[in-house]
Amino acid sequence: MSFFSQIVQYVLSGLVMGSSYALIALGYTIIYNGTNIINFAQGEFVVIGSLMMVTLTTVAGLPLLPAFFISVAVTVVVAFLLERLAVYPLRNSDGMTLIIVTIGASIFLRGISMFIWGKNAYALKHFSGDTPVEIMGATILPQSFWVFGITILCVVGLQLFYKHTLTGKAMLAAAINKTAARLMGINVENILMLSFILSGALGSVAGIIIAPITLARYDAGLILGLKGFCACVLGGLGSSTGAIVGGILLGVLESLGAGLISSGYKDAIAFVILLLVLFLKPQGLLPLKEMMMGQEKT
Amino acid sequence: MKKPFFKSDYGILLGLIVLIFVPPILVKSNMMNIYYISILIFVALNSMMAVGLNLLACHAGQISLGHAAFYGIGAYTSAILTAKLGCPVWLDVIAAMVLGGVIAWILGIPTLRLKGHYLAVATLGLGFIVYIVFNEWTGLTEGPSGIVEIPRLSIFGTVIKTDMQVYYLFWAFTIIAVLISINLIRSRVGRALRALHSSEVAASSMGINVINYKIKIFVLSAMFASLAGSLYAHYMTFISPTSFSLNFSIMLVTMIIVGGSESIWGAILGAALLTILKAMLGEFLGDYKDYDVVMYGLILMVVVIFLPTGLVGGLQMIAGKIRGMRESDEKT
Question: Which residue in A61, B21, B126, B149 has the most C-beta neighbors within 10 A?
Fold first, then answer.
């Protein structure tokens, strides 16, 4: 393989991972904007989604589409319960308390996943065969196209939701200024709940589409979730565009770093980038909430 | 109103010192298995780290999610210096503390200037990087198999061998760490911050360099953790990366939350309870001991939701209520 096709290969696989980081990062952003908390249980949504999908398709023998929607629904219920039982009672506490409660929730959920699914890694069936396709000397799995397609669908869907529905507009308003939103008659408590539901759905989708490529395991959520978070900080915490750009960029940088430098240090790359961003440009590449969903600053 | 001596920090410290002598007496009179001393050795190490974390949470309003990294840096510095390079013991302990402190300082300067919980994020990142380096830099750290034959500590030519000797030595270090912490809290800046109820704006307008104070506390807490790691390496004589994972960082945070992050004594109480719980669960669950994480997650959530001031805060509240009831009884 020539050096050029090697680079293409790394970039392509980076884009695939980057898409799932972007979806996870979007989940963080939605909750961060709704509640100002960093939800460290985000990675567990990813795992629950993918493992549910594995169980439903292999054990229950369901076709892809119903299995997909049931898995997302189950994750959404988990996210809803997490918000109602752990976050809602503490909504007026300081940031540190909220960080800690989501860390507790993430450990707890990870333990429950280990309890239900054990420590094995499961392979999820590829959505449409696993014969690699060749592009410019690099090979790519058909699953990657599913990843790109569904990611784009989610991002566009979210845009439309924010711009064209009353609930979406209310969420944006609450993210920009909670007090003003409340004065306008928006029920901010419901927004809080809704942001957990949305980010649970996004997380589980990310888990499901990437599972055929990376395998699903009870503890995968820790590292996936944290990388999604790195993507958020890289793009600028609170900015949705930043989350997407940060996710894709992180995926590509990580893949290039693993391929060209050392694969052993692959997982460290995201965190080195995180520290570099904090040191050099803590507001991220695309800062400010005003940039959210591409909205102009008014 | 002046607190009576036994209720002041120094009074409680004296109580703790007295308490430290109880287990060895119990062991000598055959009322306690010597095995429990080894658990109490870990209580000492974890207390030292929890006290540092508590200072950070209580007086800098920050949380570190990567203290296992400093613990690991301490342990690996000592292991590499003594077992691989033949550096004399104690010199490596100092080197470990200095290295841990310098890394904390480098990390703290940019992140503690920022508003929000960037230190939590940065320490989390550091924890991962350090853990991966321990596993991957096999030339220096021997990778996942770990470093063996780390020499034991010795004082004036006497090698600290038995668990009982280690127990006294480590608790002595922990007591010193507590003393330093108490003095720091009672220093001019610490007192001022507390008096202003840790309002940063108020404190800065009084001419207190809040950022500097925060960095100092973070460096100190990292040095405590490095010291604990270094002592740990010399006690176990063997270290491997698994002891320094994110799980352990979170365990340390759980300790201060359970005990109550309002006081140093809460941190020590939390460290003692969780260290003992971990040992007991490990025995009780046997082959299923990996499932103990469910417990820690649950404990962390339940305490934060229902007992936000931790056990110490909860006990104080109950004591206050009882006192209130007594007083109302006296009135009627």
Answer: B126
